[in-house]
Amino acid sequence: MNETTTASPSRRTLLGWGGAGLALGAAAAGGTAAALRLGDGSQPAASAGDAVPFHGAHQAGIATPVQDRLHFAAFDVTTTDRAALVALLKEWTAAAAAMTAGREVGDGESSDYADNAELPPDDTGEALGLKPSRLTLTFGVGPGLFEKDGKDRFGLKSRRPQALIDLPAFPGDNLDPARSGGDLCVQACADDPQVAVHAIRNLARIGMGRVAIRWSQLGFGKTSSTTPDAQTPRNMMGFKDGTRNIAGTETDRLDKHVWVSEKDGPDWLAGGSYLVARRIRMHIETWDRASLKDQEDTFGRTKAEGAPQGKQREHDEPNLKAMKDNAHVRLAHPDSNNGVTILRRGYSFTDGTDGLGRLDAGLFFIAYQRDVRDGFVPLQRRLAAKDALNEYIQHVGSAVFAVPPGVRDKDDWWGRALFA
Ligand SMILES: C=CC1=C(C)c2cc3[nH]c(cc4nc(cc5[nH]c(cc1n2)c(C)c5CCC(=O)O)C(CCC(=O)O)=C4C)c(C)c3C=C
Ligand SMILES: [Fe+2]
Question: Which residues form the Dyp-type peroxidase C-terminal domain (predicted)?
């Protein structure tokens, strides 16, 4: 698994080192960043400025510790040329490896480093001087890449995973097509919002003429944790969110519930996962008028401590029968769903106010799973039918992506096995 490295030179420092910086960058691209940067083989301790290695068996940004900020982008592929798409994915991979290591895209931002001062710089520059900030870039492919309007656009139709279904409609959905779907996605997570936004902006810029951003979502205040020792974050409803999630260290549970195995197929996806994203709007003003008792009954947990109802401490084992029949946690718990378990990695969002003066705020829900047909779909069917939380939320955006395994080394690239 990808580990966080402690040495965290800023982008400018790396440039300042000149040749040394370039040599370090090349080594990072070879997958030895952690060892080189530490130099002593010791285990790294994560902190907010660090770099998370880009190369590995699985993509970073799934089981790796959750960062503070999100910029998620879904892209439409606008080119019809398979070779142009492949070239883009190679360029994206090189740029992603550089940015996650805290380096600039291509030759950099300023004309000092560009080949030709008459051209725009390779990097837009706003992350210059900022630390890597644990930036992870996680890449996925949507159903439309395989087939759209009955057309096999890139000769990939036969390679579509059976589990990459078009999600069914759920009761209560009010999905906006302009905030749903996408042929490709990139999930950028970082501890500094400017680093995450810079990454998506530069990928979009590289993709000009071949892809176009369909929709994107900024997120803050992570609403999940893959590191159970850390304090559990709270969502916009004021409740601890992520108490019972799969931890990044639980390799058995990750293998069982998150990573696609070789026998699941298809081959190109082994070691990858499936991502479901849902933009879930909260009716904040209604929630804020609900009594504490109603709020706690809605989730089946206490607000202050986050303990399951009838228990004292946050991490006490829930007694589902102590919760109301329609409590969110009771309905979502694996014991109520034949063991169904997903890895949640969502973020809060606030996108100003709507035309009626209400906050446009909520949860940008992200879940990773080994098969959406045994993960998000049955869970959401149950929640959509019965969840007390439905009084206060509405799903307004939706997308599903297959997330390939990790990029192995500097010769590998996002989607290589798919296009092979
Ligand atoms: C389809 C899956 C889920 C959706 C959609 C969903 C939306 C949603 N959840 C919260 C807040 C909380 N969820 C909590 C637990 C929880 N939620 C899901 C699944 C979905 N949630 C699961 C599988 C679980 C874990 C159940 C368990 O094993 O006990 C909690 C409790 C704390 C925790 O365990 O994380 C909160 C709080 C909101 C606000 C929301 C939509 C806006
Ligand atoms: Fe939930």
Answer: 232-407
